[in-house]
Request: fold
Amino acid sequence: MAAYLVRRFGLMLLTLFGISVIIFLMLRVAPGNIADVLFDAAGFVDPAQKASLERDLGLDQPLVVQYASWIEALARGDLGHSYVTDRPAAAEILPRIPITATLAGLALSFAVLIGVPLGVLSAVRQNSLLDYVVRVVSLSGLSVPQFWLGLLVMMGFVAWFGTIPIFSAAQQDLAGTVTMYAVPAAIVGIPNSAFLMRLTRSSMLEVLRQDYIRTARAKGASESTVNFQHALRNAVLPLVTIIGLQAAILMGGLVVIETVFNIPGVARFLIDAVLWRDYPIVQNLVMYIAVIVVTTNFLVDMLYAALDPRIKYSD
Amino acid sequence: MHHRLRTLAPILAALLIPFVCHTAAAQKPGGVLKAYNPDSPGGMSIMEEATVVAAGPMMGVFNNLIMFDQHVPQNSLRSIVPDLATQWSWNGDGTALTFTLRQGVKFHDGKPFTSRDVKCSMDLQMGTGPEKLRLNPRQSSWYNIAAVTTNGDWEVTFQLKSPQPAFPMFLAGAFAAIYPCHVPPTQMRQHPIGTGPFKFVEYRMNESIKLTRNLDYWKPGRPYLDGIEYTIIKDTSTATLGFISGKFDMTFPYLLTIPSFNDIKSQVPNAICELDSGEGINRHLLVNYHKPPFDNPQLRRAMALSIDRQAFIDTIAQGQGEIGGVLQPPPGGLWGMPADEMKLLPGYGPAVDKNRAEGRQLMQQAGYGPGKTLDIKVTTRNLQGYRDAAVLLIDQLKHVYINATLDLAETPQYFPKILRKDFAVALNLQTSGPDPDPVLKLFYGCGSSLNWDGYCSPEVDKLIDEQSHEADPGRRKTLLWQIERKLAEDSARPIIFYPRGGTCRQPYVKGWAAMANSLFSGWRLEDVWLDK
Reply:
C-alpha cells in the first residue's frame, strides 16, 4: 500500500508538471499579452511604452527563463503579482476560493440530496407513475440552461419579493447569507441532481438484476435492506467517481452562475484574468484547480477501496 | 391693476426669499449612493485609464484646476468653473495661461497641495517628468504645451507653443486630475490619493469600488453623501434587475440601452429616467487606405454612399439617435452642423436609393457589378455596441456590390490589429469632443497616433491648425464646418450615427445632471444628495 501511495503521489506530481507546462505554453501561444490589452483600451500603441512595460514584467525574457522563474517562485509559495492590479496574486486569489467553495459545496449537496434518493426511488419503482414523473423532471432539469433559469429566478424574486438574490460582500443576517448562496447553488444543483438521478437509477437497475439481490430477497431480507444495504452500496461506486469529478469541475466551472448572480468567485475571475492575459493569476489559479482535480481523483480511488472490499491496492 | 402688481412685486419677492433660500439649503447630508459599474477596470489611476468604468468613479477622488459646471449639461468654455484654481488669465498673445491656486487645500493623506503638484501632474501626463505612467493614453493631447512653470506655491503658468483658445477645455475634463507629487504612479493605480470630495477606500476586482466622504474637503458643506459604492456587475440583465428591485439608487450613467431603459421605465414608473444626446460617441466606417483596392477613392466613396443612417438609428437604437458628422450634432454638440446642413454632405441626404445608385455606378467603374462582387471582411470588436452595427453595415454594403463577412476580434486583439493595418474595413467607435481640438488632429491629422486608416490631407491639416488658433467662435465654426465638408467629400471615416444612452435614478437621488456632450465630465457627484 505504501509503495502504491508513493507511486500515485509521483504520478500526481508528474500530472501537475504536465499541466503547468501546457497552461504556460497555451497562454503564450494565445495572441496578445497584458501590454496589448492595456494599449487596446487606450486605442493606440506606443512601442517604447509597450517595450518598457514588457521589460518590467519580464515578458521580454526567453520562455524557458519565464517558466523557470514561475516554478521556482511557486515552489517558494510566492504566486507573484497580478499584472493588472499590481497586488500580490495570492491576495487576489485566496479571498475568492471560500466563496466558490461554499457555492460548489452547496450545489453538490443539492445535487446529491435530491438526485440520489430520487434515482433509488425511480429504480425500485421502475415503470411506475413516480418513475415517469421523476424521469421527465430530470430530463427537463438537464435541458434547462443555467443562465436562463438564473435570470428567471431573479425576475421572480424581483416581482414577488422586491429583492434580488445577488452577491453582496456586506455583512448579512443568516437568512440573507443563505438566500445569497442557496439560490445560485440550487440552480447549479438542479441539473447536476438530474444527472445523478439518472445515473443512480441506471446503476441501481443493473445491480437489482444481479443474482445476489435475488438471493438476499430469497433469504427473506426486507425491501429496504435489499435496496439500501445490498443494492445501493454496490451501485454507488460509479456515483462516487462522478460526484468526485463534479466537485472538481464545479471549482472552476461556475462561470455562468457567477456572472448571472454577480458572485466574485474563482471561475469568473479566471475568465477575466485570461482576457487580461494576467499570467500570474491564470497560471496559479489553473494550477490550484488542477491540484483540486488530481487530489479529488486520488481520494475517490481511496474511497473505492473503502466502499468495495473486493478492491485492494497492492504493492 | 398692473400698477398695484408692480408695487406688490418687491414685497412678494421679499416674502419669497426665505422660501427660496430654504429650498436651496434643503439638501440633506448623509447616506451612501449605491450604483453599479458595468466592468472591472485595470486600475484606479485616472491618468492611466481610458475608459469611463475607471474614470467615472475616480473623478470624485480628485480635483482639477478648473472643471465643467456639474449642473450645465453642455460642456463649453462658458460652463467652466473654478476648482483648485480660483482664477485664471491669458497673456496678450494667447500663449500663456496663468492660474492662481486655492490655498489651504490638503490631499487625502493630509499633505498640502501646492503648485508643485500641478507641475508634477502635467509632467506625468506629458511624459516629461522623472516618474512615468505605465500607460499614458492622452499624452498626445498635450502636444501644444511648451512648458509648465510655477511661480511660488500658488501660481502656475501653462506656456503654449501656439495660441489655443480651447485649451481650458482639456484642463476641465475628468482626466486632467491633480495628482500628489509625493505618491508614486504605481500606488496611484492601487490606492489613489487626491484632494477631491471622496476618499478612495477599496477596489476589489469584479466586486466593488468604494469611496467615502472626505471630511476635510475644502469646499464647505460638500459632499453631501457619506460615500459611494459601485458594485461591479457585468451582466446587463442582472444590473437592470438590481435597479428595478431597488438595490441600486442609480444605473451607470449614459450606458442603458434603449430596451433596458424602456424596461426600467415600465417597471419602476417613478424612477427618473433620461436619454442623453449621444455623449459624443459615434459609430463610423474605418477603411484602410493602404490596402488595395481601398486605395481607390472612388471605391471608398461608393462604400460611404451605401449607408442608410436612419436605418441604423431605427434598427439599433430603436429610433433614439442622431445623424451627425465628425462634430457631434446639436443640441448636444457644440460645433456640429444642424440637420439641414448635414443633409447636403455627400451620402448624408435622405435619398438613400439615389446615393446607392451613384455608389453602384462608381463600383462598376472600378470593375465590380452584380456578377463580380467585391468580397471583404468587416473587422470589429466582439462587443455588442460594435457587433450589431457591423452586421447592419454588412447588409447595407451589399447594395453597392460588396459582399462582406464579419470578422470579430476580441478586445486584446482589436486595436493591435487596427494598428498593424491588418484590416480592410472596420466598424469602429470614436469620440467627438466635447471640443474638436485635439480630437481632429489625433484622428485625421497626417501621421498622428490615432489616425488608424492613414487619411492625410495637407488642406485638412491646415484647417485643423487654423481652427485651433481661432478665438472667435463664429469664425471657428466656419472653419470646422469646412473640415466637416472636406472629410465627407473625401469619405474619411464616414460617421454613421450617434446612438443615445440612458440613465435612470431613484426619485430620491437629487443634484445630479446628465452631460450632453461628454461621457467623462459629470462624475464629481459632490452636489448629489439623497432625499430619503
About this structure: The first strand of chain B starts at residue 32 and ends at 37. DSSP finds 16 helices and 20 strands in chain B.
